[in-house]
Amino acid sequence: MAIQAPRNARVVVVGAGFAGASLVRNLPPPLRRRGQTLLVDRTDKHPFIPLIHEVAVGRIHPESTLSPIAPLCRGRCDFLMAGVTNLDLTGKIVHTPAGSVGYEYLVLATGSGAARPPEETAGHFQLFWTLEDALRLRSNLSAAWRKATEPGLAGDPSGILTVAIVGGGATGVELAAEIAVLFQYLRKRTSGKPREEPRVVLVEATDRLMGWLDPYFHEAAMQELSELGVEVRLNSMVEDADGESIRIGEEWLPAHMRIWATGIQTSPLIQSLPSEHDSAGRVRVDSHLSLPGHPEVYVLGDSGLYQDPRHDLLPPTASAAVQEGPWAARDLERRLRGASPEQRPPFDYFDRGYVVSLGPESAVAEAVGAKLRGPAAQALYRSIFLYYLKNRRHRFLTTADWAMERTIGRLGFGKPEPEEQS
After folding, report:
1. Is the pLDDT of residue 422 over 50?
2. Collapsing DSSP states into helix, strand and coil, what is residue 108?
3. Residues forming a β-bridge with 100
C-alpha cells in the first residue's frame, strides 16, 4: 500500500466503487503499466452497499460485503489510500494528504452518501447508507427486542419495537421488508412474548413507492409489504421529530428507531465542480461522460448526471455505474490512439431492468421487458448481486451466509457472532 502519492500518473481514478472498479478491471494494456494509472480511495476495502440491509438484520456477515482494493489493482494500476482534499482543474492536479498528483486524465467516481434530514431534526434520525450504519441498526434492533421480551421488566417507552423509515425509494422498501421479516423470525425463535407489538412504518412524501420505476414496482411492493405487516404512509411528510417519536402531519408516532432513507447526496468535492448540479449534487456531464469545459475529466456513477437520448436522466444505480466504467476505459483507449471527439461514439446506456428485494423469499423485478415477482424475482436478485461481487471468495461467503441462516440463525440476534471469516 502506498503511503506517499506519486508525483504524476497518466490517469488518476478517484473512488473504487462500482464505476471506478469496473473501469480499472477494463483498463487498456497501455494504461496497465506502472506509473500509468493510479487509483485513489480513502479506504483499503470497499463495501458492497446494495447488501447492507441484509447485514442490518443478521442475514449476511459484514465481512462478506467487504472487498479489498489491493487485489483489484494487482497487475493493473498503483493504489494510494488517501482522501482527495481538492482539485486544481486548471493545473491538472489532485491534492491529497499524502501529496499532490498531476494527471493527464482524471476519473471521478466518488459515489454518493445519504441525503440528510433537516438540520433541526437530524439528531433524531439514523442514516442508512454505510456498513457502519447497518451494524448500528442491527445492534439497536437486537437490544430493543431483548428489552421488550426480557421477563420481569415493565415500563418500556411506547414504541420500543417500532421502526419508522422515512423514504419510500428502493432502500426504504428493502429495509422495511427485511425488518418486518426479522420480527417474524424473532417471534418464532423467542419463548417470551414481546410486551409491545412490533411495527414497521414506511413514510413516503409522494403517492408512489420507488416513483422513478415502472408503477409495477409500486403495486407489487405495496401488496408484499402489506402481507408482511408493514404500514405504508403515502403522501405523508415528516414535519418534526424528537428522541422518542416523529410527527407526520398532526400525528406524533412513537418510534424507538427512526431511519432517514430519502435519497442520495454527492460529496463536497463533486459539488464544487464548475457545472450544473441537481438537487442531490450530481454534476451534469456531456455525451462522453466528461465535465463540460474539461474533456479530460470523466465523472462516473452516482456523481455524474447524464441525459441519455433514449432513457432521459440516468438514475444513480449500480447498473449504470458498471456500464460507465468499462465504457470510459474504452474511450480512454480511443483517445490514446489519437481519436478526435467526432471519432469517439457517445456513451450508450443499455437498460437491463431493475430488481428490488422484498425480504428473503420475495422480490420484484423487470428484466429486458419481463416483469417478475416472488421467489423467481428473488432468485434473479441473488444471481445479479453474486455476479456484481466479482470476487470468488465473496460470492462463496455470501452464498454460505444465505444458506446458513436456516441452521445457525441470524448474526447478532440471540447467538454469538463468529469473530472472523476466512
Report:
1. no
2. strand
3. 95
| CB-based contact 410:417 (threshold 8 Å) | no
Could you write out the DSSP letters of every residue in 272-289? TSSS-B-TT-PEE--TTS
DSSP state of 74: T
Segment 19-66, tens digit of pLDDT: 999 999 999 999 998 889 999 999 999 988 988 999 999 998 898 888
Residue 365: DSSP 8-state: E
Report CA torsion sign: 88, 93, 98, 99: negative
pLDDT 10s digits, 260-270? 999 999 999 99
pLDDT band for position 152 (50/70/90)? low
In angstroms, the CA 367 to CA 371 distance is 7
Q: Greater confidence, 191 or 419?
A: 191
SS3 151: coil
Q: Where is 100: in which H helix or E strand?
A: strand 99-108
What's the confidence (pLDDT) of residue 388?
64
Work out the average pLDDT over 80-105: 96
Q: How far is CA 337 from CA 65, 143, 330, 332, 333, in A?
A: 38, 60, 11, 9, 6
Element (H, E) at 147: helix 131-149
Domains of the chain: 8-42+82-112+266-351 (3.50.50.60), 116-263+355-408 (3.50.50.100)
